[in-house]
Amino acid sequence: MSSDKTNILMKYKIVFLGDQSVGKTSLITRFMYDTFDEAYATTIGIDFLSKTMYLEEGKTIRLQLWDTAGQERFRSLIPSYIRDSHVAVICYDVTNKKSFTNLDKWIKDVKLERGDDVIIVLVGNKSDLASDKRQVSLEDVEQLHNKIGSKFFIETSTKANHNVKLLFKKIAQALPDFSNDDVAENGQETLTNKPETIDISIENNGQNQGTSSCC
Asked: Sorting pLDDT into bands at 50, 70 and 90, what band is 114?
C-alpha cells in the first residue's frame, strides 16, 4: 500500500547570499511580514526564519530562510550553511556594479560546497532605482545566468514590493518533490493541523517598475 503523503510537510533550506546592503534582509522581511524599513540593521552572522507556504496546486511546504551576513569577516561561517541547502539565492544591487561583480565569489562558494546539487537563483534588488541609477544591465545578468546555469534570474524591489512574491513562487515551483524515502536526508514533518500559511498566488507589484526579466 502506498503511503499517504497528504499530511507530510516538506521542509526546504534556502540560503541568501550576496554583499552587504544588497537587500537580502529586506527581501526576506517583505516576504515574511509584508513590511519594509529604510534603515535595516546590518545582519550579524546568520539569521534564520521559517515560513509555511501554500501553493496554488494545494500543496503546503515549509521554507527555512537563512539570511547571511555580507561582510568579509563572516565569510568563514557561510560555507557550513550552504552545505545542506536546497536553494542558493544570490543577490546583488542593480545600482551597484561591484555587488554584481562580486557574485563570482558567492557562486564559487556554492559550487565548492554543493557542486551542481543545488538550485541557484540570481536576484537583482532595488529595481525601483533602475530607471536612473542602473549599473547592471539585464544583458550582464543573462550572460552570467547562462554561464553558471542558474535556474532563473529576476529583478525585485522590496521597497515597492515588486516581484517579491513572484520570486518565492518561482523558487517553490523549482523545488524537488521528494518521496517519503527521503525523510532522513531532506527532512519532513507531519502536518497535524492546518498551519498559518502565506498564499503566493497573487502578486502585488506596487508601482510599475518597468521590465523585470525572469528566465
From this structure: very high
Dihedral (Cα; 38, 156, 66, 100), 10-degree rounding: -100
The identity of residue 49, as a single letter, is L
Instruction: Say if residues 17 and 92 touch (Cβ distance below 8 Å).
Output: no
What pLDDT score was predicted for residue 201? 40
Tell me if the pTM is above 0.70. Answer: yes
Inter-residue contact 36 to 46 (CB < 8 Å): no
State the cell numbers at 124.
537583482
Quote the Cα angle for 36-137-78, to 5°.
Answer: 55
The closest of 123, 114, 185 to 151, measured between CA atoms, is: 123
